[in-house]
Known about the structure:
By secondary structure, this protein is an alpha+beta fold. The strands form 3 sheets. Strands 1, 2, 3, 4, 5, 6 and 7 form a 7-stranded antiparallel β-sheet that branches. Strands 9-11-12-14-13 form a 5-stranded mixed β-sheet, with helices on one face.
Amino acid sequence: MFALEHDVAQWDSALLPLRGAGRVPLLLLLSWHLRQRNCARAIALSEEAHLLLPLAGLEPAALEQARARLQLVQAEVAWLQGSLDAAESLALAAQAISCAHDNGTACADAHWLLSSIAVDRGDHARRDAELQAAAEQARRAGDALRASLADAATARWAVLHDAPAAQARWGRQFPADGGKLPAPLATWVHDFHGLLAHTSRDLGTAAGHYMQSYEAALESGQLRGAITAAINIGDCFASLNDHESALEWMQCALDLARPTGWPRSIGACQTHAAETLRKLGRLAAAEELLREALQTLAPVTGARTYANALLHLGELSLDKGDYDTALDAFSRLAQRAEALGQADFRSVAQRGSAHALSYLDRPDEAHQAAQGACQLAAAQGDAMHQVAALRVLAMLHARHDLPPPPGMQERNPALHFLHQALQVAASIDGYVPPGELLDALAREYAHAGDYARAYDIALDAGVAREKSHTQQANNRATAMQVYHQTEHARSEGYHHRELAASEARRAEVLQQTSDTLERLSAIGQEITTHLDAGAVFQVLDRHVHALLPVNTFAVYMLDPAGTALRRAHGMEAGRPLPDNAIPLSNPRAYSVRCLLGRREVYIAQVPPKRHAYTVPGTLHNQSVLYVPLTVGERVLGVMTVQACHADAYGERERLIFRTLCAYGAIALDNASAYRQLQDAQAQLVSQEKLAALGSLMAGVAHELNTPIGNSLLIASTMQQKTEDVERLMNGPGLRRSDLAAYIDDAGKAAALVMRGLHSAADLVNSFKQVAVDRTTEQRRQFDLQQVSNEIIATVMNRIRGSGHRIEMEIGFGIAMDSYPGPFGQVITNLINNALLHAFAPAPNDGAAGTGCMRLSATLDGTRVQIVFADNGGGIAKQHLSRIFDPFFTTKLGQGGSGLGLSISYNIVTALLGGTIEVASSPAGTRFTLDLPLVAPQLDAAAPASIY
């Protein structure tokens, strides 16, 4: 029912790393055990648990019981805050659910809370019934501690009704020297014994028990019990006339009660503190505090505490001579006493009313009230209250002409009642009649003319006062002893609580450190996954602002020349900072000192004279922290955080920032390396494209060489024949047959030259189109067969030179709206890849090779499947998954760059909007391109080249 402080601290620490439905078990525990320690947090945790319960995967019965436990938390908080109707409604609902599921411990807790609500309503019969039910339910559930708690609470309340009967009934079950008890039970058992000792005027023993109750209540989270115990300790000191110590304990109780906002506890503290002030003669302060107490207690007018406040207001009003207020207070107290069924309050209320009525000149009513008070005290066996009532009767007869009491044997009624008071006082063990009682008796004898008797009684009064002084001295000694005992116990309890709190703080710090390291590890992974410096800066900026107090965050990188720090990223008060360069020759710059010294620079309070060096347009920060960005022996730059207030960065904050700088340095170094790699890749790709264009030009030269060479040969032959005809014409003469032969040869030569030149022109046109497509990456509409023919024509020289052959089976009319240049690059790369890797070298005897490549296409709706196959040796299985990786080649240094198939993959998937797949076996390799007839539109803002 009540947990100890270190258990709660452990649960609190264990809750921190949990997320989602995994928090539910600890949320239920903590909300229940924080219900008096911290009402607001208990409610917040119960509301969170209520939201997460559906996600916890509980069985329906367990789910209902969990919700009932949360209702009990809300009910107890409502009770503490004085909302008794709401508290009772919630408690009854939780009780019904718990009993329906036969949950004995939960039923016992509900009955316990209902008994507390009954106490504040003043319904003590129901209080006892609920406590009995709680004990029975706990025993049925096998929970001995809960059962003992209910019994101890019953015993405690029984003392206020009939102390001797309570001692007889419960003293054996809860002996005073019963050894060490669990803190929850010790709270109530020591309160029981404290009340017993207090009732018998053994104030030292009472204070000792109250002190143990106070410490146990604090340890077990029973804050309301701790407040009550502190009030009772103050009452003990007040009864021992040590009012300063009494006020100290009342203030201690009030310090515990005020932050809670609980009306009953705050009102009780105010009431008892006011009574102590009254005894010190500070009547105005006492009245102000009592008025405040009655206002505070308005929600719980049924509680005994409210009746106490009325009692003290009545007595204070009598001291002030404000008899109307006194009569009103005692009349209201009488009503509350009847409702509470407590005879002590009824007797006090009637006695106080009699006193006030007497001074309001209403003697008959006063006499009737005083007689009623005396009869009630006698019936209750309360000798102290009976003595006080008899003294009031004596005062009434002395002030007013009232009928004498029946059977009076003294000279006047006042003497009669004073003698009765002395007789009753003599029956109290150890009680010394106060001097003022004997003085009153002496005055009455003197008034009656019996001066000798008056003198003798006055002497007795002097002796009584001496005894009283001795008793007061003993009380002071007892008070000092009790004070030292309670202070020792208090300091011991404080020491133990501080140890527990220190352990809890240490556990919390360890948990926070663990959580911070875990979080920093996750942040480090996020930072180092980025290979772009800009993205690294953004991630660092976000996490620095989330983890640290930051007004300005900046990253300075060392320039390539190594002469200055340049601001690569900067944010101040949510705005980006302009670019800035700090020469390394600047000795005043903290960033330069940090970089050159390769050490952290932290200025907790920037001197005002440094503001002259602040960069124009930026703020004057009070705390600055600079940490170098180092990777191994290399320093990349400096990172800084700055705050507007001094001493912003403690050791924890500096550790977090150092860690972020370490991750940032690694990420920025990786980004730099990746950028260099991209530059190298772009250079290699450019070289590959130039090599492809060079191969294209070589093919062009070779293909044009044959028709042009043949035409040149024929032209040179015809030139020779023309010269021969000219010589014959100018010489011996030209015969008809010679001219006919020349004309015939000229016709044949012209036909051969025209055919050769037409062939060359066609090749030039094809080469020109391929070259334009390849270099511009223009999108256009084209026929797949025509473009494929043009592409193959550009590489025929190499194919024939290798001794292998290529076949093409692509029908006319497959129209595409795409990129013919990049498409040609893919086909060329596939042909070159096959020539380099698929086939064995051609034989040197001039025989034809056996290698055959085949390019085919099949139209399928809005897509076309293009297959390039060869009958070569295939691709090894372990290489098949890597052939599209950049720079992967099995012919490194033998003509392979490792970029051909990688570029082809990127072209097909990124630019042409298709897919490329490969299948291979020892009988050959097959590449399948699945392309849309209409290529997707590219983002105009994206780079044009996909190589």
